[in-house]
Write a structure and sequence with these properties.
single chain, alpha+beta, Catalase HpII,  Chain A, domain 1, 10-stranded antiparallel beta sheet, two-stranded antiparallel ribbon, 27% helix, 17% strand, globular, EC 1.11.1.6, Catalase_AS, Catalase, oxidoreductase
């Protein structure tokens, strides 16, 4: 092959000089709309499958309600936010919660080792709020431009149509920030026993905005009142031999018998800013916020008490987007969140249709009035304002008018040099992974090591050695046990140079016990 054939381009034939980073205002600033390479890449990715979801295709769901405590921890919720869904004590907001796996197709087994989707639609009095997260509190990558490549590597091989371990680890070996998530997913936490006994998390960082226009960073979490239960590989295989949809069955049956699952919703809050005292960026979704420094503060409870009347009309056609926020909850500059905000709603318009928000499962329960018209499968026409002839704004002929802005508008100061950046805070890529390994119980570590050993045996030597190098830098025992189990030369792995363009991790991290 020629060098030109080796060079990555977009579909316009333009050379792609940086396929790893969104263009943003400074290292931590917001992404910009002229990210053409990202937009072309992600919008094509959103259209790769029809009609099922590209990711999170296998799922089940239930209706329920959320009751706000009116407090965040011991403080009035209004100290942090003006969102009525969180501030009005005792108020009950209808919700629809869809659980899912990520990589497998619509009929794949629910015992798959995979993150679980935890997507909630709150039908609030101020319009819908979608909180689209997972059961685990972190993710594999921290920049949305990498998402199509990650999913391609994790999906079946385009030639053999099989999920291959070498493809998964070939991607991971180049992204040390993925080690933390890999350690979670390859442990029993990668196979929740069912949907009722797993946590939920926003994964991404948001902002809460109070009535005075002041903001704090926040993460949302859901702690199951039923407790957390996970499966080993052997337990999952035993279940899968009898039932590929055990978690759907479990949720449906529990609700039918009146055993309603419940979660306590919590937030972690942090001052909005750079946080030089931390060795990780709080906007990096491959990192957890230490709960001893940023405790989980209860804000309300979520209960599921009704199964859908029709799977296709509700569960399958439900559409979520991370950009669907209510006043008092705002975006952070988390690059995964900003990329998802474009991609999710774009996917729904393609998958369900331009008028997906007119479907009952997606429509808000509060009044709406827009000037949007027509499009495929329009069920009705929005007729806001007194004059139905006016479908534009502004107008002097009794059309719709802009709403008054509630409270003080949040206007953060943004400045920086426009460019493509990777985080300079990468030491925690290894530190948090090692900490996670050491906090697992013995049986969890045993299952983790066994799963990784089996995977490593299916990889070529260069991938094996780099992955052992990574694991050893997270924790010496971690790397040694995987190497010994898979018959990999640990000394040879340790002699590898650091990844190109990255500093070597501090080897002292491997022994911080």
């Amino acid at each position: 092959m020629t060098d030109k054939q080796h060079s990555l381009t977009n579909r316009q034939g333009h050379p792609v000089h940086d396929n790893q980073s969104l263009r943003s205002v400074g290292e931590r600033g917001p992404a910009t709309l002229e990210n053409y390479q990202f937009i072309e890449k992600i919008t094509h990715f959103d259209r790769e499958r029809i009609p099922e979801r590209v990711v999170h295709a296998r799922g089940t769901a239930a209706h329920g309600w959320f009751e706000a405590y009116g407090k965040i921890g011991d403080e009035p919720a209004t100290k942090y936010t003006r969102a009525k869904v969180l501030t009005e004590a005792g108020s009950k907001t209808p919700v629809f919660l869809r659980f899912s796996t990520v990589i497998g197709g619509k009929e794949s087994p629910e015992t798959a080792r995979d993150p679980r989707g935890f997507a909630i639609k709150f039908y609030t009095v101020e319009g819908n709020w979608d909180l689209v997260g997972n059961n685990l509190k972190i993710f594999f990558i921290r920049d949305a431009i990498k998402f199509p490549d990650m999913i391609h590597a994790f999906k079946p091989d385009p030639i053999s149509n099989r999920q291959e371990a070498w493809r998964f680890y070939d991607f991971v070996q180049h992204h040390p920030e993925s080690l933390h998530m890999v350690t979670w997913v390859k442990s029993p936490w990668g196979i929740p026993a069912d949907y009722r006994h797993m946590e939920g998390s926003s994964v991404n960082t948001y902002k809460l905005v109070n009535p005075d226009g002041q903001a704090v960073l926040c993460k949302f979490s859901f702690e199951p009142k039923q407790g957390v239960k996970n499966l080993t590989s052997a337990q999952a295989a035993e279940i899968q031999a009898k039932d590929v949809g055990h978690a759907t069955r479990d949720l449906y049956d529990a609700i039918e018998r009146g055993d309603y699952p419940e979660w306590e919703m919590c937030v972690q809050v942090m001052a909005d800013g750079e946080h030089p005292e931390l060795d990780f960026d709080p906007l990096d979704d491959t990192k957890r916020w230490p709960e001893d420094q940023f405790p989980l503060l209860p804000v309300g409870r979520l209960v599921l008490d009704r199964n859908p009347d029709n799977f296709h009309a509700e569960t399958e056609q439900s559409a979520f987007g991370t950009g669907v926020l209510v006043d008092g909850i705002d975006f952070s500059d988390d690059k995964m969140l900003q990329g998802r905000t474009l991609s999710y709603s774009d996917t729904q318009r393609y998958r369900v249709g331009a008028n997906y928000l007119q479907l009952p499962i997606n429509a808000p329960k509060c009044p709406t009035a827009t000037n949007q018209r027509d499009g495929a499968m329009a069920h009705y026409v929005d007729r806001g304002g007194e004059n139905p002839h006016v479908n534009y704004e502004p107008s002097s002929q009794n059309g719709l008018e802009e709403s008054a802005y509630p409270g003080t508008e949040y206007q953060p100061w943004v400045e920086g040099r426009l460019g493509r950046y990777q985080t300079t805070k990468s030491e925690a890529d290894y530190r948090q992974t090692g900490e996670r390994y050491r906090t697992f119980e013995d049986w969890e570590r045993e299952d983790l090591i066994a799963n990784l050993v089996e995977d490593m045996k299916q990889c070529p030597e260069d991938i094996q050695l780099r992955m052992i190098w990574h694991f050893w830098h997270c924790d010496e025992e971690y790397g040694r046990r995987v190497a010994e189990g898979a018959g990999i030369d640990l000394d040879k792995a340790k002699r590898l140079p650091p990844l190109k363009g990255r500093a070597a991790p501090n080897e002292n991290l491997a022994n911080q016990r």
